[in-house]
Amino acid sequence: MNMIEVTDLTKTYSLGSVEVPALRGVSFRIERGEAVAIMGQSGSGKSTLMNIIGCLDLPTSGQYFLNGKNVAETSDDELASIRNQNIGFVFQQFNLLPRMTIRRNVEMPLLYAGDKDGHNGNSIGQRAETMLNAVGLGDRLNHRPSELSGGQQQRVAIARALVNEPDLILADEPTGNLDSHTGAEIMSLLLKLNKEQNLTLVIVTHDPSIAAQTQRVIRLRDGLIEDA
Predict the structure, then answer these.
(1) For residue range 23-81, what is the model confidence (pLDDT) as tens digits?
(2) Tell me: domain 34-56+81-227, CATH 3.40.50.970, correct?
(3) Are 156 and 135 a contacting pair, CB within 8 Å?
(4) Dihedral sign, CA of 62, 66, 69, 71?
(5) Which of 24, 90, 140, 142 has the least CB density, counted as fewest CB within 10 Å?
(6) By three-state DSSP, how is residue 203 classified?
């Protein structure tokens, strides 16, 4: 079953009287459980495409189906719910709240979702702890981000992305701020989660060595797909 299906997707930005095409008719499918990399130079349209896949932006034309649902036909409230419950985001910048413990950081998506009663009998705190154990940080629950290395902070960001049990992980240059050894560890963790939990994993990267670890690469150039 296709998790993602985009057809003739375009996105044009208006800068005053000038129209700038970021995507110029993009079509592809990503199956549930696939690990796919989106590659391209700066200005190729990959960040625009990631924003549309993540329901952070809408295309100018074309269709985007997520889990069989036409995203253009969903309300703003439905889009917010999809972003919170169905998609986990991992960014190059860790975006952790510095004054909160890492447990509290991981709990935040659950609190935003209004999940006060727990899930499958587990409290919010228990779910956050489970996710932090899964990324190897169960012994750091009460540490703050500044007390962790860059790789550990990215692991917290991954735990936060997973805590709502999404079926799609979007990772935008997830190793971009890490040294090569730590970046390899983060990629290994993402691919392990992809395999063990059947998560669909989409990684935006400019690094061929990162892309080579996925099952398939979608290459963008000037808003068009070179191959997929």
Answers:
(1) 999 999 999 999 999 999 888 999 999 999 999 999 999 999 999 999 989 999 998 88
(2) no
(3) yes
(4) negative
(5) 142
(6) strand
